[in-house]
Amino acid sequence: LASDEHSDKIEALDAAIVRLEEHDERAARVVRLRFFAGLSIDQTARAMDISPRTAKRDWEYARTWLLRELRGP
Q1: What would the pLDDT profile of 16-62 be if each residue is shown by its tens digit?
Q2: Can you tell me whether residue 11 is helix, strand or coil?
Q3: d(CA 73, CA 50)
Q4: Given phi > 0 = left and psi -120 to 50 = alpha, else beta, which region is 72?
């Protein structure tokens, strides 16, 4: 992911996560733990002290939200 050819995509994703954080801080944290730290749903839930079901729901919501943000109008 750190290659120059993907740097624009990584910057766009990071900016979208920051915007997500303004709307849903917990969902943004789930994304960071899942995407950047590589944690599973269960590991994310334990790290955040939430249920796996909540972590999964936040992950699904955040993925949909980020996809819409990154695709644009």
Answers
A1: 999 999 999 999 999 999 998 999 999 999 999 999 999 999 999 99
A2: helix
A3: 33
A4: left
